[in-house]
Amino acid sequence: MIDAFSSQTALVLFSGGQDSTTCLAWALNRFARVETLGFEYGQRHAIELACRDRLFDGIKGLRADWAAKLGESHTLSIPTLAAVSETALTRDVAIAMGADGLPNTFVPGRNLVFLTFAAALAYRRGITHIVGGMCETDYSGYPDCRDETIRAMQAALSLGMARPFELHTPLMWIDKAATWNLAHDLGGDGLVDLIREQSHTCYLGERGAQHDWGYGCGECPACSLRAKGWREYVAGR
């Protein structure tokens, strides 16, 4: 599988979080060149975007071959997504569970929009491989993180742009503990420590409190998943 991609370029959706950093390392281990894309959409935890430069520096310092493969970093601003959303990720409201069984951190259409813009950018740059950290194993129930959604998007984007896009979701079928393990397999203790210290997951944008699994409020769904995965990862080593 790695050999099949060894001469090609990938575009990684890179927010600056644990999952996207792990996916970036996964792509660097497989593709000849890797570009990244982040989105400004009025998110409360926009501090995650500020983490990317430190993560880039850390990634480059871990392995010389990764440094040589790392290409352009892109950021797209799509404030309209926040304007049409009434969610705890785009408004200063308390995080709570909705009547539909989804937490109010769900931003309707977010991953659909992200993948559409990513494919449009990839089209212009001659890239057909797009990598995202979507997962339906250990997640908050978001319907646009499900494998069925991603496969449908791959078909729609490929048809709509007449380009054979392939959407890679290396975390789709693994839980957060396995995501920590994958990071270790890819980059050893160095990558695990980089993710702990420099990536950002907390929905509230909290960087003041440092835990053994990283920075965050420790209470929001994203922090809870990350902390639980870390405890299981440590217990299994």
Strand-helix topology:
Layout: H1 2-5, E1 9-13, H2 18-28, E2 33-40, H3 47-50, H4 52-62, H5 64-69, E3 70-77, H6 80-83, H7 110-125, E4 129-131, H8 147-161, E5 166-168, H9 176-198, E6 210-211, E7 214-215, H10 221-235
Parallel strand pairs: 1-2, 1-4, 2-3, 4-5
Antiparallel strand pairs: 6-7
Helix pairs in contact: 2-9, 4-9, 9-10
Describe the structure in your own words.
This is 7-cyano-7-deazaguanine synthase. It is an enzyme of class 6 (ligase). GO terms for molecular function: ATP binding; ligase activity, forming carbon-nitrogen bonds; zinc ion binding. This protein has helices spanning 2-5, 18-28, 47-50, 52-62, 64-69, 80-83, 110-125, 147-161, 176-198, 221-235, and strands spanning 9-13, 33-40, 70-77, 129-131, 166-168, 210-211, 214-215. With 237 residues, it is α/β, with parallel strands linked by helices. It has one domain (5-236): Rossmann fold (3-Layer(aba) Sandwich), CATH 3.40.50.620. A 5-stranded parallel sheet has the order 3-2-1-4-5, sandwiched between helices. It has a two-stranded antiparallel sheet with strand order 6-7. The model has no long low-confidence stretch (mean pLDDT 89).
